[in-house]
């Protein structure tokens, strides 16, 4: 049940597909334990919440209908994006909707754990409107083998597993959503990485605050600068005493909690980063996550993995659909998920083979430029008019505003 909101109200939220519900329940457990009474909204993007989930105080599950976009636009988003793109793409819209009822909203990735109260946030949100957390705060030494600053250049300055906003952040959310509604892509050839890369420029344009408190958003990408210790029964950062507020267990396998993350190319224990305090936190998280997995049972398939005819949806097909949807000269393609459009979508799917081929050729041409730069340069100088036409065609096909 929603409580009456006073002027100091703040809500936490997260977004998951059904297969990631155990992580969301583990996050909820930490919020309830550390900040009793704090409300948490869990958005499930691909279907109903299983009836096996026991009710939890101050926790509400919502679906994509909460966004107020209408069924057709929800189907559009679910078709043009895969599960990661969809879950990250609706983030600014979710925050916009929450700010209609709350003074402040804090997004937390489902694989996070609240370790101690996020006490700094209300004042920061009120002062800056938008609060983000950089991946790293210190230079990474040359020759480091398990992480690098190049990775941050690839995925973005900030880790958008955390984002805190208030009313003054509304212009940022409007701008962010205007891009993510159609441009929340994992598309490294064009420099895009879902919601994160957009904030590299958005944080500058809208004067977002980059939080330098080392206890927030601790993940495998910054463990080298954030040794965790226990002092007076509290978790702290060894270098400056910042309290540990928020752990981010990205790529975490609860069956091997001491590895910290499966997304590293080495075992972090071999780097001496798995100290006792960190391992205590990771083992505790593993227990909570495994309990949530037992509560929910077998993981369901992604709800938007197949069209209304039961056929799988490839990334290439999704890109072709997006191309037609964003083409101002073309009619909107039929819904992939509305049963009343089954026949029309099947026909569109057959016609899309040409568009899928063009999408592949676009990516191949962009990749060729970087794989064979000398050859590309010679051809460009020899055939300037041809290259001008080809470049224009490629940019139109990608349907990314440049």
Structure description:
The protein has 402 residues and is of the alpha/beta class. It folds into two domains: 10-296, Spore Coat Polysaccharide Biosynthesis Protein SpsA, Chain A; 315-398, no CATH class. It contains 14 helices and 13 strands. The chain has helices spanning 21-34, 71-80, 83-89, 91-98, 121-128, 149-155, 170-183, 198-205, 276-296, 315-326, 342-351, 353-371, 373-382, 384-398, and strands at residues 10-16, 39-44, 59-62, 104-108, 112-114, 130-132, 162-165, 186-187, 192-193, 209-210, 228-231, 234-237, 246-248. A seven-stranded mixed beta sheet has the order 3-2-1-4-7-6-10, sandwiched between helices. It has a two-stranded antiparallel ribbon with strand order 5-13. It has a two-stranded antiparallel ribbon with strand order 8-9. Strand 8 (186-187) and strand 9 form a beta hairpin. Helix 1 (21-34) packs across helix 9, helix 10 crosses helix 12 (353-371) and helix 12 (353-371) crosses helix 13. The longest helix is centred in the last third of the chain and has 21 residues, at 276-296. It is globular. The model is unreliable at 1-7 (pLDDT under 50).
């Amino acid at each position: 049940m929603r409580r009456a909101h006073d002027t100091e109200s703040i809500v936490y939220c997260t977004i998951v597909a059904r297969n990631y519900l155990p992580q969301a329940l583990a996050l909820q457990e930490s919020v309830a334990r550390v900040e009793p009474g704090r409300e948490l909204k869990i958005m499930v993007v691909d279907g109903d919440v299983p009836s096996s989930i026991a009710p939890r105080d101050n926790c509400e599950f919502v679906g994509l209908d909460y966004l107020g976009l209408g069924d057709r636009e929800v189907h559009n988003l679910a078709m043009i994006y895969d599960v990661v793109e969809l879950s990250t793409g609706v983030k600014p819209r979710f925050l916009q909707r929450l700010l209609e009822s709350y003074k402040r909203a804090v997004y937390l990735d489902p694989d996070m754990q609240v370790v101690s109260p996020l006490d700094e946030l209300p004042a920061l949100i009120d002062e800056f409107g938008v609060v983000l957390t950089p991946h790293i705060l210190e230079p990474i030494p040359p020759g480091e083998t398990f992480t690098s600053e190049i990775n941050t250049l690839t995925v973005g300055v900030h880790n958008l597993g955390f984002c805190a906003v208030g009313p003054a952040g509304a212009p940022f959310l409007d701008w962010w959503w205007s891009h993510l509604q159609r441009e929340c892509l994992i598309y490294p050839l064009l420099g895009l990485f879902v919601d994160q890369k957009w904030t590299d420029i958005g944080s500058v344009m809208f004067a977002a605050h980059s939080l330098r408190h080392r206890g927030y958003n601790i993940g495998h990408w910054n463990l080298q600068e954030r040794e965790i210790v226990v002092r007076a029964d509290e978790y702290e950062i060894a270098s400056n005493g910042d309290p540990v507020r928020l752990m981010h267990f990205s790529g975490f396998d609860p069956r091997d909690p001491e590895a910290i993350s499966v997304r590293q190319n080495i075992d972090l224990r071999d780097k001496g980063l798995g100290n006792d305090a960190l391992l205590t936190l990771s083992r505790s998280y593993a227990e909570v996550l495994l309990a949530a997995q037992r509560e929910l049972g077998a993981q369901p398939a992604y709800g938007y993995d197949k069209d209304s005819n039961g056929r799988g949806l490839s990334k290439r097909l999704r890109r072709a659909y997006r191309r037609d949807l964003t083409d101002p000269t073309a009619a909107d393609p039929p819904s992939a998920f509305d049963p009343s459009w089954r026949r029309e979508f099947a026909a569109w799917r057959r016609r899309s083979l040409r568009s899928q081929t063009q999408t592949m050729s676009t990516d191949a041409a962009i990749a060729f430029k970087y794989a064979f730069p000398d050859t590309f340069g010679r051809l460009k100088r020899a055939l300037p008019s041809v290259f001008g036409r080809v470049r224009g065609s490629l940019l139109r096909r990608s349907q990314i505003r440049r």
